[in-house]
Specification:
By secondary structure, this protein is mostly helical. It has one domain. Helices cover about 55% and strands about 10% of the residues. It contains 3 helices and 3 strands, in the order αβαββα. A 3-stranded antiparallel β-sheet has the order 1-3-2. Helix 1 packs across helix 2. The two termini are about 25 Å apart.
Length: about 80
């Protein structure tokens, strides 16, 4: 199974969220890498974030970010 760059970019956006608080969102600026801008827009269309430029995670987005960040911790542990 291969992972397309679009999915890698979406994962990268989800990894940027601080899961310790629901009061902290992110903003993907127009000067960001195009792949991240597009990924954030796709995450918004999927209902994972509340704004096309990032904003806050939705409940579904928070769950996805938790799983994504947990998987990264497992894969990068020694």
């Amino acid at each position: 199974m291969t992972i397309k760059q679009e999915l890698v970019d979406e994962i990268e956006v989800l990894l940027r969220y601080n899961l310790d608080t629901t009061q902290e969102g992110i903003k993907v600026h127009h000067t960001a890498r195009e792949g991240l801008i597009s990924a954030t827009q796709r995450l918004h269309k999927k209902g994972l974030v509340d704004s096309e430029d990032g904003g806050y995670l939705t409940d579904l987005g928070h769950e996805a970010a938790e799983h994504t960040q947990a998987a990264l911790r497992l894969l990068t542990s020694d």
